[in-house]
Amino acid sequence: MKVPLPASSSLNFLAGIFAGAGINLVTSVAGGRNPNAGASTTKIFVDSALWVVAAAFLTWVAQVVQRGERNADADVARRNRLTEAEKDEVRDLHERQSWGHARLPIALTVVSLFVSVLFLPGLVHWSDLF
Amino acid sequence: MTSSEPGAANPDRWVKLAALPPDAPPDRVIREAQADLTRCALELEREFDVALPFTVRATSYDEDPPSLTVTIADTVECTITWAALVRARDKGLGPVDLLASALERPWAGDASGQERPAVLDHTWRPKRVGRAVGPDEREMEQNRAIARDFDIIHEVEDTLDGGQDVMIVGQHGSGRTATAAVAARELAGRGYREIWLNLADAGDGPESIIAALMRIPRSKKYLIVVDGLQANILVVPAIQACVDRLRRHFGLEIRILATTLTSIAAKLERGELRFPAQLITVRAKDLIILMMDDEDIHGAARDRFQRMVGNDVHIAAKAIDMVADGREPTEEALQREFTGNTTDPTRRAILYRLACLGAFSQGMPENEAVTEFGDDVIQALVDADLIHRTDGAIAIAPRRRAGLVLSYARAHWPEICNGQPRNRPEEIVWTYLRTSDRRIRAALSQIDNVNIHDDTLREASLNLLATWERSEDLGRWLVRRTEDDPTWGDNLGSGVFAGMALGRLHHEVQWLKIAKWIRSRWRYDSGSLPEPVGDPTTDLEDFRQIADLMANEDASFWSKTGHPSGLAAADFDPGKAYRSWALGLLLCFEGSAPLRHRDRRRIDQLLRMAERAAEKTGGYYPARVPWVTARILIGISVAAHDPAEHPAVGPACRWLRGLVDGPARQWRGGTGEWNSDEATTAMCVIALAEADRGGRAADVIATALAWLRSEEQREKWKSPGREIALAQVVEAFVRYTDDPVREELMTLIQQTKTEWEEEPHPDYRRPEERLRLPFLAAELTEIVWRTVRREVKLLLQDVMAEADPERTPPAVEQGGRPVPREPEPVPAERPCGLAEGELRRWRTAAHRLQNALDAEIADRRGIDVPSAKALLNQYVHWQSLCETLLGRLDRRASRETLQALDDLGRAAMDVAWPATLPYPDTYCDEEPA
Fold it and tell me: What is the pLDDT of residues A14-71, one digit of tens each?
């Protein structure tokens, strides 16, 4: 069973999306009064900050995965007598290792993402909860 | 198959042309020849349509020279000049043979782009065209008695019918010819018309095929049986080319069925010759078992039978006849059978002579035998089935039968083999062989098919065989290089020497390529020295270098007095010396051309130029460099019919004689390093000995040779890097002295063989580098050839001793040549296993394998991936295996070792491993098959 893991470039792309979401939130507040009445400015700032933080963590993950890819490339380039099957296996090995190293930043990303989604204005009515 | 009917107009004879007087004018010759040819064509077409009809298309009396044109099968035109017609008539070649020779001239595209043979003109040397006659009914009976393995026969037929050529291979006496004959007859039943060539007859070749096709009825398919490739392997490419042309231009459907020895077939595959055919092996043992089964020989009788008959089906067939007659087949009974218990001295003489020749698988040409002994005796022997007639030759075959007759003769016919030197077997064989280089070559290449045991063949003979093989290798190398670049890097010297060697080894096709280039590159029809056409060749560079060396020499030694020859380096003209040198080279080249391509016109031009080019002193420019004059003298002696008659020779020899200098009275090179004193002296000795046959130079030559022989000189020309000097000196010794040169010859071969087996890295700072290898090749072939001729008699003695173990060695009777009385210190090695070159190739491949394995292992260390680990283990295992095999890799390596190494290499390196590595014919740990 081989699940194709995302490459570092995709992660970077995704991080960009998250950062974009966060900045969008900020600019929506800065532009004028928020039509969404239930949201306070502070909450929106916090939410957008959380989005950016999630993006930052995802970039960290991407950097770790990228380091793994670079190592795999260097290894394969050095040994020019390897067969194609061996080269694939080497890359896989490095990939798995790097995802292993990326556990912490992944966890942080997921957490901050979860919280920032929660804090999305209008998504969860906190006033109703508390 | 048709033959000429005696009564009717014989298509094989000239009638009107033969009636002409010898001085008839050309147009009458053409007219009568045309009439004869037309009549001949009508005669041939009278009863049936022939396979290759011909018509005389046109005659041109106005052109120079007058000629007639014949169209063959309405497709190809041949032009024949009147001079060729006269030659053919004088040599006894009939019309059909003439046309066959015309069609076999080298083909080329003409002005309209069509391919046609070259004109048959006065340069053509008529050669007897052998008749392509197959076995007659009586021989077919014997063949059928031998070829009993119908599986093989059907396999042969089916393969041929399926569109592939077939080569039947086997050992001596394994029934190849018989199998081919039976298969051919079966195929005749399927519509193939048979043309039978027996290569033991020197006249059988492509012309025979064409001549046969012009006489036999047309058929849908033709089968050409080429029996005994080993007897005349040089003609095989010509036969292939001819069949190819017949298929392509005339649309004839032709299949070839060849027979030869297994070892020759292996050589064909390894060497330059390609014979694309399916190999089918016949084994004597299988046939003999079939024979014994058919005749119901079982039990103890079977064992006795097998032991006596050995591996020879012909003897087995004879023995079967005896059994059928109720007689017990013993060896003595066989011998008496084979000699017919004859008491007639002439018959005994003939049988003895043929038995000696038969030990070398040679026969005697029939016309020679008839002249010497008379036709009746020969015919009687043939009728009594004691000798065997094939297509122009008589013989006792196969070898084992000849051996039996020989030992019987020696035991029972004292008056024939009375121990006189003249009647010893090796003398008889040598008398026969020495008439032709080709025969010697054929015999020598067959010797390594003789079972040679350690104690019979002396080391000397084994060395002779080794040098012979070396010169064959050399020939192949030269052929390859010439095919790559016939101009040899646009260097006249290289081309000339390579051409001389190729001519000596009878590689005429390649010689012709070089000749075409040289002949178009140089002009010598006028002027005093030859002129290059276009830019000068690269040899001019060498002469410029010589100029520099001369300046050095002058500055170092002759600054005060000037060079003794009077020519100072400052006045030296490299261009003139270059063209002078070219004159000598061209004379040598054209003068030593193979007979077929010798161009008398060019030779005359060069000889006349040699007259004009001589300086007043008698020598040639430059006076300082005597080897230029020596080379020209050598060229004149090769090219002129009688060198002593040539006007330039006398003065040149006198001048050369007067030049000797120095305390040892040797010749000085005059150029410092280029062409040392030793080489120059050797060359001058050769020049004087060849050109000055009057003997006035004898003293000078003797002193020079003595100087060369002296200890001090021997050391000098043995040092590595001086191979050119060594070669020149060895040639001088071989030609004019009886000195044993074997050691020097082996040194020469040893020191140079690495060079031509690897890619050359020319070091142009070394003198003579450009033409070093071809020069050495030419020298070596010459030396080996002369040594072989000198020593082949000893070799024959040894081989004869092998064939007849009861005889006493004749060494005591020889006299003159010192015989080593003490036993040989080391037993001479059997010529088994790998040759030097082959071993080298194996070693190179094995080392590459080692390197590859090391690299693979190095690349995979430190990777934790399972696939890589598995491969790593694999390679480590292979690495240790490779080391073991490399340790066992030497000349005597066994079949398993070589096979294992080959498999390992292929598994590890895949396509990078050499596709065909040379396996030896016989392994040292196996019995020769």
Answer: 999 999 988 988 888 776 655 555 567 788 888 889 999 999 999 999 999 999 999 9
Residue in B321, B352, B63, B340 with CA at minimum distance from that of residue B364:
B352
- Is B867 close to A79, i.e. CB distance below 8 A? no
Q: How far is B860 from chain A (nearest CA, A)?
A: 7
Q: Facing residues of B393 across strands?
A: B365, B390
As a whole number, mean pLDDT of residues B353-381 equals 84
Give this complex's ipTM.
0.70
Q: Distance between CA B554 and CA B560 in Å, rounded?
A: 9
What does pTM read for this prediction?
0.50
Q: Is B721 an interface residue toward A (CB < 8 Å)?
A: no
pLDDT digits (tens, 9 = 90+) for B727-774: 888 888 888 877 777 777 777 777 676 666 665 555 555 556 667 778
Separation between Cα atoms, residue A113 and residue A115, nearest integer Å: 5
Report CB contact under 8 Å: A86, B863: yes
Q: Look at A93 and B865 and tell me if their CB atoms are within 8 Å.
A: yes
Query: Per-residue DSSP letters for B529-584?
Result: S-EESSSPPTHHHHHHHHHHHHHHHHHHH-TTT--TTS--GGG--HHHHHHHHHHH
pLDDT tens digits, one per residue of B384-424: 888 887 767 788 877 778 888 888 888 888 777 666 667 77
The Cα–Cα gap between B318 and B336 comes to 12
Report DSSP letters for B39-90, one per residue. Answer: HHHHHHHHHS-BSS-EEEEEEESSSSS-EEEEEETTTEEEEEEHHHHHHHHH
**Which residues on chain A are in Cβ contact (under 8 Å) with B861?**
none
Are B726 and B677 within 8 A, CB to CB?
Answer: no
Instruction: Answer yes or no: do A89 and B864 touch at CB < 8 A.
Output: no
B849, B856, B861, B863: which to substitute to probe chain A, counting the most A Cβ within 10 Å? B863
Question: Measured between CB atoms, does B855 come within 8 Å of chain A?
Answer: yes
pLDDT for position B867: 86
Distance to chain B for A59, nearest Cα, Å: 29
Of A80, A85, A90, the CB nearest to B863: A90
